[in-house]
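Summary of Year 1 activities. Much of the first year was spent building the evaluation harness for sequence design. The harness presents a backbone, in tokenized form, and records the residue chosen at every position. We chose the following record to illustrate the format because it has been used consistently in internal testing since the harness was completed.
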């Protein structure tokens, strides 16, 4: 305890030869790195402490964990499995499979007592049913994967506590050696096997003893009771560490929640004195998150396999922990890790209402302005009403990117983080609106909206190119509690970026169209499109699979419309095929890198014949988001009508669109393109209609702002008879 370290044929053959040549070129230029060498095998112990959070860890209450976190690698642990609240057995089964797993039915109790075997081992209760259930989920997890890997290597497993049996059991549900509690283990037990697991459940037992109320919700546990349970757990960890052989690698994981709401838990990697350290002092990270100080529960499996010198399994989705060395003081490190959960809880409490609140507020304010205009006010009053409505619309368009920019401000450190976050977003939105209206361009019909669209696209692009720091814990980003994404573009951020990039490209091209240079306008759109697709799709930046499929055909379509060409169905089919080919090329390239993202893993699944399962899982998630099918059918009819209205607003007497189209030739193609990217994005991503919603969240207010400025000028609102057809043809 003194110290802890941190079908074959010529065409196919031609393709293969081409890919090999490209691979050689990339390897020669260093873009394709060789896989990292495996660490030398070593003894490893996984210590599960269900429910433990970084806010529980202090120098006086938990001196062992405090010292371990300070001298080794530490991180916040995302424990999300198949449901919002992860139970202890769910957590252990996820360690067993290296994939999100569960115990059904989902009664969040402590793991069941295993059956002892004559040889001193144990068998997990209901194991065949657990294996069959998890194999049938959308994750197709194979519980027993970790135990099977150890047994194939000719080694054994030692489990301490019922939960540890679920974590180390092989495909038959068996562990080789078992004791029910740490104080029952003998010194020789810790040297029998190279992989051991220990369950320390004092904290969870305190909540289980408190029980639930009549509604089935967890009864409150007094702070003093929790503190005692945490202190007892720390003492048990100390006893385990004292019994371990020198040079043993230790993985501490707070591997479950305590009911709902979910939280981020503790993760520590360390090595007992007497051997080379696997985890230098610093922050843990992994290729699953690309974030220092944040790892996932499925990473525990990959880390254990690497430390044992065993091959990684394609069925395990996590990545091994590694330390990013740092001399940061222990108190500062633990405080920062705890703040991650504070931020996540603040976002969770207000994220669901953000979009609806923004939309409803705009409807109310703009609806009020419309009612005032219906009373035919005088010229001065009309100008004031229109001016105020324009500000409201621009502010609505500025709020989405302001939600990301709020990450620059450490709002999570305040005593009321949710309130400070909302205030920060509103202030930043007001500043951006002021900038859009504050220069000599304020009288322009298009430039203020263009500024907000361009700033939105630029901020999101710059963010993912520098590490996606603004994506985490934002209204339209992602959180580690949901654990759907940790780096690159999340689905909502992609939707906002795609809409902003399309609007920016179309409205920049407007000036080339006005100058009578439609093909130059198409080149402008093409340049923006190439940059947007690169930022969104390359693994080093956005790493977004569905975004490439959505944006490639849409930008091609927009460029043709701006050049005055009519669209043909075979062109659209060709654009779609090009998008598929591009995303497969990116996936193949990424699969051959040292640390593949989900893009590379998809290519590996495709080669192994499992790509259909991935597509099916995402399709099922997308269809679940559509909800009530009659309402979905109605939405489809509305979208078809909207396409017709956008293509020819005069025929459908869509006066707001006529106003928006009147002074901006590319407005029609821009709106058609945004609607298209929203619909395609909805169909090829697992977030469903939220993607279309976010694209409209930006597009509608910026379009309204441009239309209002046209009304302010007092010019006629009826276009020439040929205007709608011309806009559809020339953009």
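For this record, the design step produced the sequence shown next.
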């Amino acid at each position: 305890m003194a110290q802890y370290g941190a079908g074959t044929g010529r065409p196919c053959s031609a393709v293969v030869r081409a890919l090999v040549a490209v691979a050689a070129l990339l390897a020669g230029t260093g873009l394709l790195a060789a896989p990292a060498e495996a660490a030398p095998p070593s003894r490893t112990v996984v210590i599960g402490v269900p429910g433990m959070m970084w806010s529980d860890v202090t120098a006086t209450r938990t001196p062992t964990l405090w010292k371990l976190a300070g001298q080794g690698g530490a991180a916040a642990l995302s424990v999300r499995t198949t449901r919002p609240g992860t139970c202890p057995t769910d957590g252990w089964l996820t360690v067993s499979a290296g994939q999100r797993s569960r115990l059904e039915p989902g009664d969040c109790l402590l793991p069941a007592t295993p059956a002892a075997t004559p040889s001193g081992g144990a068998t997990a209760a209901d194991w065949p049913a657990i294996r069959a259930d998890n194999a049938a989920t959308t994750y197709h997890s194979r519980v027993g994967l970790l135990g099977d890997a150890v047994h194939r290597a000719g080694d054994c497993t030692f489990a301490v506590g019922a939960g540890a049996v679920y974590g180390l059991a092989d495909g038959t549900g068996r562990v080789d050696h078992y004791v029910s509690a740490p104080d029952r283990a003998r010194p020789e037990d810790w040297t029998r096997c190279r992989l051991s697991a220990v369950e320390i459940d004092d904290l969870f037992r305190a909540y289980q003893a408190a029980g639930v109320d009549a509604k089935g919700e967890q009864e409150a546990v007094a702070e003093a009771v929790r503190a005692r349970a945490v202190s007892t757990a720390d003492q048990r960890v100390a006893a385990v560490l004292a019994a371990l052989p020198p040079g043993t690698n230790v993985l501490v994981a707070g591997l479950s929640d305590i009911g709902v709401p979910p939280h981020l838990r503790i993760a520590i990697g360390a090595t007992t004195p007497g051997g080379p350290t696997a985890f230098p002092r610093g922050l843990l990270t992994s290729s699953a998150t690309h974030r220092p100080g944040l790892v996932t529960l499925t990473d525990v499996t990959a880390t254990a396999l690497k430390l044992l010198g065993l091959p990684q399994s394609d069925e395990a989705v996590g990545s091994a922990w590694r330390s990013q060395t740092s001399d940061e003081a222990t108190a500062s490190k633990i405080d920062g890790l705890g703040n991650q959960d504070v931020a996540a809880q603040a976002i969770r409490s207000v994220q669901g209402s953000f979009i609806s609140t923004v939309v409803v507020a705009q409807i109310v304010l703009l609806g009020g302005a419309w009612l005032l205009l219906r009373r035919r006010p005088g010229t001065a009053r009309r100008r004031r009403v229109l001016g105020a409505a324009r500000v409201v619309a621009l502010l609505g368009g500025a709020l989405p990117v302001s939600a990301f920019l709020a990450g620059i401000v450490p709002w999570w450190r305040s005593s009321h983080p949710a309130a400070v976050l909302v205030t920060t977003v509103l202030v930043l939105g007001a500043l951006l609106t002021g900038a859009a209206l504050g220069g000599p361009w304020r009288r322009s019909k298009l430039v203020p909206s263009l500024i907000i669209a361009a700033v939105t696209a630029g901020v999101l692009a710059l963010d993912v190119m520098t590490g996606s720091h603004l994506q985490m814990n934002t209204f339209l980003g992602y959180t580690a509690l949901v654990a759907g994404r940790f780096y690159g573009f999340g689905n909502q951020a992609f939707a906002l970026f795609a809409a902003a990039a399309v609007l920016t490209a179309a409205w920049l091209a407007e000036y080339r169209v006005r100058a009578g240079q439609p093909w130059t306008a198409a080149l402008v759109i093409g340049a923006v499109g190439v940059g947007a697709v690169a930022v969104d799709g390359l693994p080093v930046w956005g790493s977004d699979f569905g975004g490439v499929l959505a944006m490639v055909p849409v930008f091609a379509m927009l460029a043709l419309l701006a050049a005055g060409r009519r669209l043909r169905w075979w062109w659209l089919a060709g654009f779609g095929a090009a998008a598929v080919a591009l995303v497969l090329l990116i996936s193949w390239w990424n699969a051959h890198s040292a640390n593949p993202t989900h893009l590379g893993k998809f290519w590996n699944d495709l080669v192994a014949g499992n790509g259909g399962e991935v597509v099916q899982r995402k399709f099922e998630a997308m269809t679940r988001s559509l909800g009530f099918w009659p309402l979905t059918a109605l939405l489809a009819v509305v979208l078809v009508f909207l396409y017709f209205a956008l293509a020819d607003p005069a025929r459908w007497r869509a006066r707001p669109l006529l106003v928006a189209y009147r002074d901006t030739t590319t407005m029609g193609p821009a709106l058609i393109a945004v609607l298209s990217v929203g619909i395609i994005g909805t169909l090829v991503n697992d977030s469903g209609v939220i993607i279309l919603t976010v694209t409209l969240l930006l597009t509608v207010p910026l379009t309204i702002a441009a239309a209002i400025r046209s009304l302010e000028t007092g010019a006629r609102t009826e276009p020439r008879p040929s205007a709608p057809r011309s806009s559809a043809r020339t953009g």
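Confidence is low (pLDDT under 50) at residues 1-39, 715-731. Quantitative recovery figures across the full test set are reported in Table 2.
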